[in-house]
Fold this sequence. Notes:
It is built from eleven helices and 15 strands. The protein is of the alpha/beta class. It folds into two domains: 4-131 and 306-336, Quinone Oxidoreductase, Chain A, domain 1, CATH 3.90.180.10; 136-282, NAD(P)-binding Rossmann-like Domain (Rossmann fold). The chain starts with a strand and ends with a strand. Bound molecules: NADP nicotinamide-adenine-dinucleotide phosphate. NADP nicotinamide-adenine-dinucleotide phosphate binds next to helix 1, helix 4, helix 6 and strand 9.
Amino acid sequence: MTETMPAWVRETYGPSDGVHLEQIPVPIPRPGEVVLRVEATALNAGDIRLMLGDPLLVRPVFGLTRPKHPVRGMEVAGTVVAVGSQEIGAEVGERVVGELVGGGGLASHVAVPATRLVPIPPDVTSVTAACLPIAAGTAWQALDHAGIGFRSVKHTAAGHVPRVLVLGASGGVGTFVVQLAALRGSEVWATCGERNARLVEHLGAVRTLDHRRSPLTELPAAHFDAVIDIAGGMPLRDLQRLVISGGRVVLVTGDGGPVLGPIPRMVKAAFLSIGSSRRIRPLAASPRSEILAKLLELTAEGRITPVIEREFGFDEARAALAHLEAGHTVGKVVVRGA
Ligand SMILES: NC(=O)c1ccc[n+]([C@@H]2O[C@H](COP(=O)([O-])OP(=O)(O)OC[C@H]3O[C@@H](n4cnc5c(N)ncnc54)[C@H](OP(=O)(O)O)[C@@H]3O)[C@@H](O)[C@H]2O)c1
């Protein structure tokens, strides 16, 4: 008889109120995969996009008329309970974390390619580890894309402190961008709602601007080495105006129209960057286990700390998705395992 497990399922595209708890077969690992008993799944804006099938552009890849994978949850931490037939280096009983591109984390068990997984250090909880793969991984890659590296002694001696503006600093990705940019030795300015200003300053921003009250057009031109746009909505020319010659604007936001999403903005960014010393670079972050390993190390050392707005029990997963869908998450939302 097929063994079954509880999973939060939505067979069609649509809002979180249509997600329901079902019993589905426990996955069997294929060669190169492991099965995890899920201990924590962190949710992302991307889970909401896949749940809604919005923009339409995602559907040819993730399921034309219905999602290929009906279970959401892409950042997963858990314990290996079964390994596939190939030699893959992961051991039963090991605690690991990683990214599931199509989802699957809102279930008691999930199959994951072993190459996507990184061992969790003993003093990092599974809830904390689950916050890192996409949110912190994207933040890391956004700063790399912007040319904001760890400051070398040479830079320090030269006295140049890069100034970075983070648009949308209070969400899952933004709270990590602020921490990592400060850790890399930058002076961080950030936009967020007034209620989150103290938090964002605590994370390392020297100045916060209320995104509902302070128009960016009032900021001086050529003031930043990099602008990391996680919020969207600002004309690209206004963002380009803010960076110095040789500086970069990085587009992280996936916002855009209901059909093509961010694509038209990406095309415009490429157009505006032709022949310009102020380049606008869209980011498509990818799962990178070497970056995840560094992020776990920084977390274990207490040098970065995920901001967790709320932990939900497994039986509250639908409420967790609804909370994210409402669009005002502060840091991360995590669902504990079943
Ligand atoms: N390019 C990539 O590879 C990649 C990877 C991951 C994520 N993303 C994209 O990155 C974006 C953020 O993801 P996330 O998971 O961090 O989202 P999130 O946690 O849901 O972000 C919510 C936060 O954004 C703030 N916010 C909304 N509009 C804002 C604005 N105009 N100015 C400043 N802050 C604003 C909200 O603050 P208030 O409550 O004050 O409104 C809230 O705290 C999404 O569009 C996602 O699709 C892209």
